[in-house]
Amino acid sequence: MSKKYSVSETTRVQREKIANDALAISILDAPEPSKDTLELVDEYIKGNMEIGDVLKKTIEQYRVSI
After folding, report:
1. How far apart, in whole angstroms, are the C-alpha atoms of residue 50 and residue 1?
2. What pLDDT does 24 receive?
3. CA distances for 9 relative to 21, 34, 50, 51, 53, angstroms
4. Taking a C-beta distance cutoff of 8 angstroms, is the pair 40, 54 a contact?
5. CA–CA distance, 48 with 24 (Å, rounded to integer)
6. What's this model's pTM, rounded to 2 decimal places?
7. Distance of alpha carbon 45 from its chain centroid, rounded?
8. What angle do CA 21, 19, 22 make, to 5 degrees?
9. CA 20 to 30 Å from 11, out of 21, 35, 51, 64?
10. Distance between CA atoms of residues 10 and 34, nearest Å
């Protein structure tokens, strides 16, 4: 993961902009992310979770066990 998105290298305002930009792009041709996913993103904005961990947990939510 690039350092420019890490919690230690960004302010809350920067993380909120990163999250809002990503949300805008993600819903261009798709439904809004689930409440669970938005809550994970909020943890990133608050500085409690790295964006890479948010992505991993989001993917895990949708992974189908074979």
Report:
1. 9
2. 94
3. 18, 27, 11, 12, 16
4. yes
5. 22
6. 0.85
7. 8
8. 40
9. 35
10. 25
Of 45, 42, 43, 23, the closest CA to residue 33 belongs to 23
* Structure tokens, 25: 């792009």
Cα gap 19→12, rounded to integer Å: 10
- Reading the block at residue 43, the tokens are 């943890």
Asked if 61 contacts 41 with a C-beta cutoff of 8 angstroms, the reply is no
pLDDT of residue 38: 95
Residue type, 61: Q
- For residue 17, what are its two tokens? 């902009």
